[in-house]
Amino acid sequence: MHLIVTEKNIAARRIAAILAPKSPKKERVSGVDVYRYELGKGKSRQETAVVGLSGHIVGIDFPKEYNNWQKVDSRTLIDAEITTTPINRKIVTALRALGKEADRVTIATDYDREGELIGVEALNIIKKVNPEVPFDRVRYSAITPKAIDAAFTNPTSVDFNLADAGHSRQVIDLVWGAALTRYISLAAGRLGKMFLSVGRVQSPTLSLIVDREKERNIFVPTPYWEIHVELETKSSETFSAQHSTRRFLDKKEASEVFNKLGKKAELKEMEKGTKSDQPPTPFNTTGFISAANSIGLSPANAMRIAESLYTNGYISYPRTDNTVYPETLDLRAQIEIFKEGPFKEYAEALLEKKELIPTRGKKETTDHPPIYPASLAKESELKEDEWKVYELVARRFFATFAGPSTWETMRLRLEINAEEFRSNGARMLESGWRWYYPYNAPEDRLFPELSEGEILKVIKKEMLDKETQPPGRYGQGRLINIMEELGLGTKATRHEIISKLYSRAYIHGNPVQPTNTSFAVVETLERYSPTITKPDMTKLLEENMDLIAEGKIKEESVLEESREMLQQVFSELDKNRDKIIESLQAGLREDKIIGKCPLCGNELMIRRSKRGSRFIGCSNYPNCTFSLPLPKSGQIVVTDKQCETHGLHHIRIINAGKRPWDLGCPQCNFIEWQKTQKEEQAQQPKKEKPKTITDIEGVGKATAGKLEGAGITSVEALAEADPIELAKTIKTSVKKVKTWQISCNGGIVEDL
User: Fold this and answer.
1) Is residue 390 part of a domain?
2) What ranges does the record give for the region Interaction with DNA, renumbered to this chain (predicted)?
3) Which of 79, 182, 252, 328 could disulfide-link to 74, CB 3.0 to 4.6 Å?
């Protein structure tokens, strides 16, 4: 039996359907889908089974004895043993069963470091039950009949060096992440779900974001003034112009010029020209993510959709550095696919060309081609976001074969009372590639018919007060580009790093804004262990992993170098341990401050009750008992936006896998909740006020006894009690006491 192993079940199903002479038979082996078919007859009959994995089926970790954060020193993780354990036992069991039957194995996982490692993991499991089984490897960049048939006609060898490079990344990221995360979290006193994540790629990336925010915070704006006029021709057409001194830094000078301006302008010079706008280069992963981000998709979402389109055969493999189409790709045949369907007119226009000469980017690799549409899709077959990504890829592919777009430009020089004004315009003459790829296209800026020496009427003049702006925050697409420039992460991991920063509540919004927690962590690391926050170390390790893939150095030497680097980092940390603890705890305290208490003026902070529930409470407690509720779950992010009414910082709640919830001002939110409760209660039939404590729902004899011991013997006394103090005394929740108090009032909510 010939066993084919793919990376996912959907790939197994599609590849089996392509290779089988008729529909393959699906069966279950140990609860896993397997697709079987036969080739040939009689003695030449060959049974084939195709099975899909679920990505990594084994994982690496430390032995269990290292799991106790407080008992096991973080530094011991550097040289700790690394164990491999199954993370999907059903698939491992199925592989063993199928492996025993196999007389040949073909690894058909995705062709990159991660895919090669996943394939080798599966191969190692099979070889334990069938040590002598022969094996080979197929490589493909699209799951289409043509690409799959070509791959299986020309199998190659498993690249163990490439798999070792993938494995070294796993080990290095585990050791650096676990050791540093444990150290910093313990120093900050942030354990459990609120631990502080630190990593060799994550932390330098976060440092970039925090450093940009610092630049914004220290930026001192410079005031300047602009002078604009609106002009009218004899035929009543209008256009605008700006003074040739684009920015006046002296208000007095600007005012003098402004006051000098009369009612007439003369067109002194009119210069016409043309400019070309060259077509874009083919999409690699970074270029694709950046373009997808510009049309509203986050990097993580864009890659998730692209991978789904790839496994369904619609686009080529989306993880590639290549920006040059390989000679082996029949580009004309690929365009001919689109002679039917929604892109028919674009395909026909390109196919009229005698030669199809695509643009070329700077990066040329041999693993995968740039991202291109592999087969024709219909909008009705795809979800809205899937179609958006597919169309983006298709249009970019077409645009790489198109000519430049050309523009007619016009520059005007005018005078108003000897003061020079200028105005620029442009109109598209030839759309060129922009017809195929209309995203973010500049608009025409047209002038009316004009001639030199013409006198124009000044119908409006204005002097605008402006000031220079701080550097902008990074959008996710721009951040991906910078990470690539600095060698942070890989094409396959950069979007995941950004997603992790969001899920850890280190950043929020887009453009990306760091939280106070980020400042606390990054500033502490930059001060006491700067190696962690700089890209140099990570870039060096990435280069070494490339050398492993090329077979130039061994994995173990890179792992050893990594351990030595991490030991040096820990020497820096241990030397400054007390300062790190002080710095982190002081910084993290600021991340809990919401604003000023409306009752006493002290700080309102995010706090936890003894039972673990979260609320906003006054730092002047127990003298001040003002409090506001908070949601039970989700990471709390204190934003820099403040409520104009209450002066409190707005709050954002982050739950893994869900859209962030902008709760806004916690006091406004609570007031709105109270209002809703009152409205709902007003629609309910009125309840009679309880006469005794035991008439209240949820208060039995035992609870009444506790209340009596706390001095609460009447409904009136319970209604007037301090809920926080009473909850403490009788050892129950504040929420329960407040519910009883609502019942005391006949179910009517009282304002705070």
Assistant:
1) yes
2) 197-202
3) 182
